[in-house]
Design goal:
The protein is an alpha/beta fold. 30% of the residues lie in helices and 20% in strands. β6, α3 and β7 form a beta-alpha-beta unit. α4 packs across α5 and α7 packs parallel to α8. The longest helix has 19 residues. It is globular and about 60 Å long.
Length: 351
C-alpha cells in the first residue's frame, strides 16, 4: 500500500485547521486581517493576504469539518465498462479514494494524443444520475461539458458526489462532518488520479461544474492549489442574498448540517462566505457564469463576491484572470458561456 506525497503548496493549503482563526464580521472587505492581538490590519502585501487566506480556510473547516488526515492507498482502478467514441474513449471506473471506499466515475481519454495533455475534473449538478450528465450519458445538453472537453482533447474525470449516481455512501458514518468535505476529499483524489495518468501533464489541471458542481469546484479549488483554472456555473452568491438570507438550503445532509445546528442558518453568524472563497482562489484563473435570472443564486450577490475578490486579484497583478459572464438566462449554462469558459481553460492550461 502506497502513500501519495502532497506538494508543499497543498500542505500549506490544508494546514489551517478549524478553531485557529478569528471571526470576521465583514466578509466583503478582504483587504483586512486580524492579527494575533485581535487588532485589524490592512492587507498591504501578499504576506498579509496569506494570513487572511489561512483564516478563511480554517473558518471553512469550522463549518465543513476538518480537512481529513486519512490514508491515500493505491487507486486499484477497476474498469466496469468502456465505450468508444470517434475522438475519445469513455471508461466507467471505480477507484479507491480512502480505505474501504471506492468512487464511481467516468474517465474520458482522447484518441491520437502525441504528448501529455491537460486534465479536467468535471463535477455534476444536483442530478439523480450524477456523473452521467457531465459525461454526456444522460441529462441536459447544456450540462455535457465533460463530454465536450474530452472532444477538445482533454483527459476528463467525472465522479459521483455522495448520494448521487452509483455512489450511495454515508459520509457521516465515515467520520465526516459534512458531505461537502467528503466531496473535497474525493475530488482531490480525482486530481491525484489525473496526475498519475501517463496522458496527463500534472501541472495542467482544471475543474468545471454547474450548480452543485459549481460550488464544489470552488471548494476543491480553495483546498487544492494544483487546480490552475476553475469554471463555476450558477454555483454561488453571497450568503446574505441566497433566498433572502435563509441558509437552510445549504444545511441538509447533502451539504453542511452545521450551518443550521451551529450557526442557525444565519449569514451574520457564518464563519465564511463566498466572497472569501473567491479571494482564496487568487491568483489562479476563474470563469464565472452568473445568469441574470438565476433564481437559485441572485445575481447581485455574485457581483458582491466579484467586487470583494477583485482587490485580492489586483494584489497579485492578476485581475485579468477573474472572468465573469452575465447572460440573459435562468439557472443554465448556455453554449456561448461554455465556449467562453473553454477559451479561458485553453488560455490557462492549453489544449
Amino acid at each position: 500500500m502506497r502513500r501519495y506525497v502532497l506538494s508543499a503548496l497543498l500542505l500549506i493549503a490544508c494546514a489551517a485547521q478549524a478553531g485557529d482563526a478569528p471571526f470576521y464580521a465583514d466578509k466583503l472587505d478582504l483587504m483586512r486581517y486580524i492579527d494575533a492581538s485581535g487588532a485589524g490590519q490592512p492587507v498591504a502585501a501578499i504576506p498579509d493576504w496569506n494570513i487572511r487566506r489561512a483564516h478563511i480556510l480554517a473558518n471553512m473547516q469550522q463549518v465543513m469539518g476538518p480537512f481529513p488526515e486519512r490514508e491515500k492507498p493505491d487507486f486499484d482502478i477497476e474498469i466496469v465498462a468502456e465505450v468508444d467514441f470517434p475522438t475519445y474513449t469513455r471508461r466507467e471506473i471505480r477507484f479507491t479514494v480512502e480505505p474501504g471506499d471506492r468512487l464511481p466515475a467516468y474517465l474520458m481519454i482522447p484518441k491520437g494524443l502525441t504528448g501529455k495533455t491537460a486534465g479536467i475534473l468535471a463535477l455534476h449538478q444536483t442530478y439523480t444520475g450524477g456523473k452521467e450528465e457531465p459525461a454526456g450519458v444522460s441529462g441536459m445538453h447544456n450540462r455535457h461539458y465533460g463530454h465536450e472537453l474530452a472532444e477538445r482533447g482533454y483527459v476528463v474525470i467525472a465522479p459521483d458526489y455522495p448520494g448521487y449516481g452509483d455512489y450511495k455512501i454515508d459520509a457521516y458514518a465515515m467520520g465526516y462532518a459534512s458531505a461537502t468535505m467528503k466531496g473535497i476529499w474525493n475530488h482531490m483524489r480525482c486530481v491525484d488520479l489525473l496526475q498519475s495518468l501517463p496522458e496527463v501533464d500534472p501541472a495542467r489541471i482544471g475543474a468545471i461544474g454547474h450548480s452543485l458542481g459549481g460550488h464544489n469546484t470552488l471548494y476543491v479549488g480553495a483546498f487544492d492549489p494544483r487546480i490552475q483554472v476553475m469554471v463555476t456555473s450558477c454555483g454561488f452568491n453571497r450568503f446574505a442574498k441566497y433566498y433572502g438570507g435563509n441558509l437552510k438550503g445549504w444545511s441538509h445532509q447533502g451539504y453542511m448540517p452545521r450551518i443550521l445546528s451551529e450557526y442557525d442558518a444565519d449569514p451574520a453568524k457564518m464563519p465564511f462566505d463566498f466572497t472569501e472563497i473567491l479571494g482564496v482562489l487568487a491568483p489562479r484563473a476563474v470563469f464565472i457564469n452568473a445568469p441574470l435570472h438565476d433564481e437559485n443564486f441572485e445575481v447581485s450577490g455574485v457581483e458582491d463576491c466579484v467586487t470583494a475578490a477583485t482587490p485580492v486579484y489586483e494584489l497579485f497583478s492578476a485581475a485579468h484572470k477573474l472572468h465573469v459572464a452575465y447572460p440573459e438566462a435562468e439557472h443554465d449554462f448556455p453554449p456561448a458561456q461554455r465556449s467562453a469558459a473553454y477559451a479561458v481553460i485553453a488560455e490557462t492550461i492549453g489544449e
